[in-house]
Amino acid sequence: MPSLKDLKNRIASVKATQKITKAMKMVAAAKLRRAQEAAEAARPYSKRMGAVLANIAQAEGGGADAPALMTGTGRDQVHLIVVATAERGLCGGFNSQIARAARDHIRKLLAEGKTVKIICVGKKGFDILRREFASLIIERIDLREVKKIGYVNAEEIGRKVIALFENGEFDVATLFYSEFKSVISQIPTALQLIPASAPSVVAADTGASAVYDYEPDPGAILGDLIPRNLTVQIFRALLENVAGEMGAKMSAMDNATRNAGDMINRLTLSYNRQRQAQITKELIEIISGAEAL
Hints:
- The protein is 62% helix and 14% strand.
- It has 293 residues and is an alpha/beta fold.
- A five-stranded mixed β-sheet has the order 3-2-1-4-5, sandwiched between helices.
- α1 (4-60) runs antiparallel to α6 and α3 (94-111) packs parallel to α4.
């Protein structure tokens, strides 16, 4: 049984930890608001970009002039998996959920005899995946020094993915990230980047579909629009990840603060009981000595 001094030191230690977790919760809550606003602001642009891409792709009709980024290589043998996670931990199961979704997909591809290559965006995803797929990881992109995720970060990742595709190093590229829903809900999501999957065309509010003439031709427009759309989708995924990370961290630190409070109560109760038992024992010894006299 620990002594009174040990219990007192442990209570002080847990109280210090509780102060840290409470401060981290407040910091995450402050960052969450800005990250959530950024993620929600990126969604309409991303969806509209997809709608424009769908309209032009429909006009093009998948002809011979369609860019390779849209049509693909015609094969399905080599897959590039881009796993975007956080750079830091202390955010519950946020990183492990993304890594688990990517790991299940990779195992499925390997079981089918496919070749898999992995790019890890974020330290935590790299740490998890390298335990099982270290030989498949071709690059790790470090964003720890980036104070605020910007379009340039997504553009750098997009250029690397496109360069690999143009060099014929893969046939299909899939991005894994976490879509932010709420503070307690982040959904691991898989998005196919190459071949670009054009979403279905959404009709206007009036229900009428307009006919457009494109200048230059749709093939030339797609050649410029698809790489930009790929970068936009990566940028949106990074913003969703930041919001999800802050939400998960806020929830995890809140739970840690509550658990620390419960532990302090239990330790304080044990301390008081042991102290009372020690006082009672000393009184018994004094009374027994007095009666012996």
